[in-house]
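chain below, 254 aa
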Amino acid sequence: MKATAIIQARMASTRLPGKVMADLAGRPVVERVVERARLAPSVEIVLVATSDQPSDDLLAAHCDAQGIPCYRGSQDDVLDRYYQAARHVGAEAIVRLTADCPLLDPEVLEKVLAALRSGSFDYVSNTLEPTYPDGLDAEAFGRGALERAWHEAVLRSEREHVTAYIWKHPDRFRLGSVRHHEDLSGHRWTVDEPQDLEFVRRVYTYLGGKRFGMADVLSILREHPDVLEVNRGFTRNEGYQKSLREDSRVVEDT
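prediction:
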């Protein structure tokens, strides 16, 4: 089963605007994510899904100049953006990635896809029971599950966070988890804050441009523990928690 990796990206981040185009060892962060996703053998197409707003013109133009497929859709209804992007390229198996994870590990993507290929699940991720560093998140699902979520999801959080409707309904979808033998969920390798960007820049500096995986990053952090202090103290999944609060406001206002 060959898969399409759809990378969610936008310039208008509330905590770190323009982060996807920030420089990371000579290339934009989003390009590093594309580069990493392409290393997964089971990934056939890597597509950036951004909004149709003028604020994302620069991102779309960069993708076009670099030959990176790019689909533009709704800014706020990201579930619709994903669904339309998947339809656009005829994707049957989809990997959801975000453009703020330039340390993602292709081997982790392969493990998630292997579980989906087993046929036992409609949705597989390493986030339902987090054991991997925040920033190595990977979700895989079939087009049928995505289409059902697109038809049925109504809450703001379910439209903004593509897979929330799926994993909130284990009665309707067969859910699978990929776990690491050691709980590394306390590590923060995503880019949401200026300190996070500094963290990944330091990691890339030590890696020196070589092909790397999670084990290599962990080795660097053991050798240079001061790097861990750069972005210590932030909460995982802050964006989703904010969306849940917005759901509450919608209910209160009706």
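The two ends are 45 Å apart (CA to CA). Residues 42 and 114 are 9 Å apart (CA to CA).
thats it, cya
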